[in-house]
Amino acid sequence: MNEFSNPDKRRFVFLLLEEFSLISFASALEPLRLSNSIANDVLYEWTIVSEDGEPVACSSRNELNVDHDLVSLSHRDIIIICGGNGIRRTSTKRVLNWLRRESLKGTTVAGLHTGAYAMAKAGLLNGRRATIHREHRDSFAEEFPDVELSRSTFTVDGKRLTSVGGTASIELILHVITEEHGESLAGQVAEQLSHDALCPEISESRQIAGIRHGMRHPKLASVIRTMEENIEEPISALVLARSQGMSLRQLERLFRRHLNSSPKRFYMEIRLHRARNLLIQTEMTLLDIAVACGFGSPSHFSKCYRLRYNTTPYRDRGLHSGSNPVGEMR
């Protein structure tokens, strides 16, 4: 028996939802294949299922054949929900009931990309920590206030695992491999994948707000992060400046130099971006969105929105509700 042998093989059951993220799925599957290859043993097995057992189209519209429909599982299995566009539409009653039923057996459930939405809708994340693709974070937080939303690329809370998708799926599966077979195997898998991020739970701080906006000034990044964390009740530019030991004039110069904007204008941009996400991804009323994004009234919100996007919130929602179902990635 080699050092990685395991008499109790783990089976991963990949549930593909229509328009799933192909890179998220592949990034989760390939580490399992490599684990078996490196160990020269079958440490992991996997099967692919869909709601009805029919082929499923990914986000690029290519279809993937599956092995089964929603099969009965054991507590040793791990369900991997592969979500993507239109997650609200694809989280059907049948899928949610299946997730609830199988989770009662003690089955581990994981969600990739937007898979956390289906988990939360099924009630599997109440009182737990979870993460989801960045574009869906705002609407998720509004719809599921009982879920502690993490900014990590993946989270583990007992038998509930979630990942933002993409190559972060690799990090999640490497975590599972590390827990079950140790760092040696996980490290070899990571090396085969040319993946250098082998650590327990990767914080989004490695891609902090400032870096996402194309600059690396630590104080400016800190101010932007504070803005992003305080949308409903915006903080004045003077208070933001003092929090970094600067004068208001110094902060304004910093924004002009690095972002060609003022703190006030940049803050408004962040708030309107979140408002647009909520408008397109949820069915929240205009009043609720205005309040959630720090606007005193729907009329003020509409005026600012029209100036930024050259259309009204109502028209924008109507435009996307036709071609982009609520919750679909843009």
Helix segment tally:
15
Helix content percent band: 40-55%
CATH topology of the largest domain: Rossmann fold
Secondary-structure arrangement, i.e. CATH architecture of the largest domain: 3-Layer(aba) Sandwich
User: Please, what is the CATH homologous superfamily of the largest domain?
Assistant: Class I glutamine amidotransferase (GATase) domain
Low-confidence stretches: 1-5, 197-208, 323-330
What number is the mean pLDDT?
A: 87
Strand arrangement, major sheet: 2-1-5-6-10-9
Q: What structural category characterises the helix and strand content?
A: alpha/beta
Major sheet attributes: 6 strands, mixed
Secondary-structure element order, N to C = EHEEEEHHEHEHEEEHHHHHHHHHH
Radius of gyration, CA atoms, in whole angstroms: 22 Å
Distance between the termini: 49 Å
DSSP strand tally: 10
- Label the overall shape: globular
Q: Indicate the proportion of strand residues.
A: 5-15%
Number of domains: 2
Can you identify the CATH class of the largest domain?
A: Alpha Beta
